[in-house]
Design brief:
Number of strands: 9
Helix content: 25-40%
Number of domains: 2
Strand order of the largest sheet: 1-9-8-7-6-4-5-3-2
Shape: elongated
Order of helices and strands: HHHEHEEEHHEHEHEHEHEH
CATH class of the largest domain: Alpha Beta
CATH architecture of the largest domain: 3-Layer(aba) Sandwich
Number of helices: 11
CATH topology of the largest domain: Rossmann fold
């Protein structure tokens, strides 16, 4: 019986109920003495263990943390790496004209003016935190910006840096990338190893208002999250930091719900982003809370399978997915719909669940791919 098979949860519920009844009946019949005390303790321990096992199995089914017994034991399954379409460098470096899919998208990032170091809210620190109201979307949210080590050095005053816009999951916050995913140490290690150019990492809040799963879409009655993430945030960044002006120096990245946001931004806005990294994401909105009013009327825009079939945006995608994932069928459909000039590199794992450790392990792989294939991120 596999870890995710429904009969397993039913069996655990039945065993827990039986153990509880047995504990009540037998405890009442046990006589006094140390043997009776040991018996009671063992019965109570059995009930506790079975209750925890039942709860764990239920939560695992609901969240997909572990895909199988071998995954739970930490035994890595098979992994397949493949590329569809043209090379990632060609897709990311090529010109991507706006189409019906990208109508109303962000303007391509431009050189802008190079802000002074004193303009930073926390001079001398690599992490800068802002609260920003997007002038186009009207959305107000948190933006964390992680700067390269040499960014504030006078010797680097004329250098421009690639931009990696990273989306957290739901529920979650921008700190998920820094506190749990270990983004800073991973990026710094790859930069020091000359695997990627030092990027400016921008992590905007995706749940606005706080706690609502808006799935990064523009709801007719608000909030306009797509506009916030793909228009307001990029303009905010290029107006305040020394950034690469070309789309081959801009990429998105996300895990879980943030993986969906990353795919959406890259596919719908190839005029802004040259690449998108998707860690256990999906390809159409999947709301965990009640969708904002009127959202159903715009969902057709966010069916990325139909978008790539119709427009084939010139963007390079890197996608990690598990065959046991609840989104595996959707991922297969998306991959089968991809046509040039869209480029997709896939890392398909046979036996992994939906959890932090999986994404954290793949993060250096994805960033190394980015540095090896996008001109703006080349070391």
């Amino acid at each position: 019986m596999n870890l995710t098979d429904p009969p397993l949860l039913g069996l655990l519920v039945a065993l827990t109920a039986l153990a509880f009844v047995a504990a009540v009946v037998l405890t009442a019949r046990l006589r006094r003495g140390w043997l009776a005390a040991v018996g009671r303790a063992l019965l109570i321990l059995l009930v506790v263990v079975l209750t925890l096992a039942t709860t764990g199995a239920y939560l695992n089914d609901a969240n997909g943390w572990y895909a199988s017994w071998s995954d739970l034991a930490g035994i890595a399954g098979a992994q397949q790496v493949a590329t569809r379409g043209p090379g990632a460098a060609a897709a990311a470096a090529g010109r991507s004209a706006a189409t019906g899919a990208t109508a109303g998208s962000a303007d391509s990032p431009g050189p802008g003016s190079a802000p002074s170091i004193s303009a930073l809210p926390s001079p001398g620190q690599r992490m800068q935190t802002y609260t920003y109201r997007g002038p186009v979307s009207g959305v107000t949210g948190q933006i964390d910006v992680y700067l390269p080590a040499a960014y504030q050095s006078p010797a680097a005053a004329g250098r421009r840096y690639p931009v990696l816009e990273a989306f957290h999951g739901y529920p979650g916050s921008p700190s998920g990338w820094t506190h749990t995913m270990g983004l800073e140490s991973t990026v710094d290690g790859l930069v020091n190893g000359h695997r990627i150019a030092p990027p400016i990492v921008v992590v905007p809040q995706i749940d606005v208002p706080l706690g609502q799963d808006g799935e990064c879409v523009d709801a007719p009655a608000g909030p306009r999250l797509e506009t916030w993430l793909t228009r307001d945030v990029p303009v905010f960044v290029e107006q305040r930091f020394r950034v690469e002006p070309q789309r081959s120096g801009w990429a998105t990245m996300g895990y879980s719900a943030g993986g969906w946001c990353s795919a959406m931004a890259g596919v719908l806005h190839p005029d802004t982003y040259g690449a998108a990294i998707v860690l256990s994401g999906y390809f159409a909105p999947s709301f965990s809370t009640t969708p904002p009013a009127g959202t159903a009327s715009v969902l057709a825009r966010y069916n990325l399978v139909q978008v790539v079939r119709r427009y084939s945006p010139a963007v390079a995608l890197w996608i990690q997915a598990g065959r046991q994932s609840p989104y595996w069928g959707q991922t297969q459909t998306f991959l089968s719909a991809v046509r040039p000039p869209t480029s997709v590199t896939t890392v398909i794992q046979s036996d992994t669940g939906h959890r932090w450790s999986v994404w954290k392990a793949q993060l250096p792989v994805a960033l190394t791919w980015l540095g090896g294939h996008l001109p703006g991120f080349a070391p």
